[in-house]
Design brief:
116 residues
Length: 116
């Protein structure tokens, strides 16, 4: 489902000029800690836990997938989860407890790493 309008209007506050090897390495560790087991190291949806999941994890590396999603939509999914799937929310107040800044950094990492 589409995110609420207030999320769809959000823009990523991470400056693209701050995305360098150090940024990608640091945020890559965050991705590996919570996302890799389902979405895979290459963002292909083929992580180690994906075989056991009924509704398969999103493959971020499919051409056009990330380009066709607004940052606010991705932020909403990361923060709140995706109802009807095993994608739990990772935002503040959840078990994962990622800050909003960390969620934005993950979106930046995903776009940098998985958009060809």
């Amino acid at each position: 489902p589409d995110a609420p309008a207030e999320f769809l209007e959000m823009e990523n506050p991470i400056d693209e000029d701050d995305v360098d090897g150090r940024f990608l390495k640091k945020v890559g560790r965050l991705y590996k800690s919570k996302c890799k087991k389902c979405h895979g190291a290459e963002g292909d949806g083929q992580g180690s836990a994906s075989a056991e999941i009924e509704i398969k994890p999103t493959a971020f590396n499919v051409p056009g997938y990330l380009e066709g999603r607004k940052d606010g939509q991705l932020f909403w999914i990361l923060k709140e989860g995706s109802e009807g799937t095993e994608m739990n929310g990772f935002g503040p107040g959840t078990e994962a407890g990622f800050s909003e800044e960390e969620l934005w950094k993950l979106i930046t990492f995903m776009r940098s790493k998985f958009t060809k």
